Amino acid sequence: MKDEGRNIFSVFDEILQREVKEKLLNQRGLTIWLTGLSGSGKTTIAMALEQLLNKKGFLTQVLDGDNVRTGINSNLGFSEEDRTENIRRIAEINKLFINCGIVTINCFVSPTKDIRAKAKEIIGADDFLEVFINTPIEICEQRDVKGLYAKARKGEIKNFTGIDAPFEVPKTNFIDLKTANCTPLEAATQLKDIVLTKIIKR
Predict the structure, then answer these.
(1) Is 183 left (phi over 0), alpha (psi -120 to 50) or beta?
(2) Is the dihedral of CA 145, 83, 8, 96 positive or negative?
(3) CA-to-CA distance for 97 and 105, rounded, in angstroms?
(4) pTM of the model
(5) Which of 30, 23, 25 is nearest to 195 (CA)?
């Protein structure tokens, strides 16, 4: 069997390095990984956070199901294997953005500790900020304009996180962002204050 990778040569030592790009942008690249139940407010908070950081002059990119599953991951379904591959690809995209000094805000359920740990391993612990969007499932169901929870409770959708598939709450080294009694903007503002301490170049 031929070595399919033998003609692939690394150019990482020849292209501009991360430090050069971060100096140009005057910011440090970072992955912000928002995890939580469907309907918890991940994407809404991410968009508000992006606006807040943009107003302060920081370059960001939001990644969520809409701009990932309709593009680079359009060939993936929702089996356990495909969900794992979905997160793996997203993590690799994050690495590329971080190398450009970009603050990347991710909005994915990523329900298990193992799948989040894999993303963190690929990206690197120093560049990975895990944020649990801590919203009670009752509130998530109230916000569910697509009726996904109702369908899951009727058995029309299988393996739906929070109903018949588990969500494993992070245990260590994460930000617990409780949203039951605050608006998305208030939650994003709390998160912005933490993020700024990590991305401002000293």
Answers:
(1) beta
(2) positive
(3) 10
(4) 0.89
(5) 30
Q: Compute the distance between CA of residue 39 and CA of residue 144 in angstroms, rounded to an integer.
A: 6
Spatial contact of 167 and 111, defined as CB atoms under 8 Å apart = yes
Q: How far apart are CA 202 and CA 199, in angstroms?
A: 9
CATH topology of domain 18-199: Rossmann fold (3.40.50)
Active-site residues, by number, are: 110
Region of 62 please: left (phi>0), alpha (psi -120 to 50) or beta: beta
User: Would you list the domain boundaries of the chain?
Assistant: 18-199
- Average pLDDT in the 19-43 region? 95
For the chain, the maximum distance between any two Cα atoms, rounded to a whole number of angstroms, is 60
- Helices 18-25 & 80-99, crossing angle to 10 degrees? 70
What is the pLDDT, as a whole number, of residue 45? 97
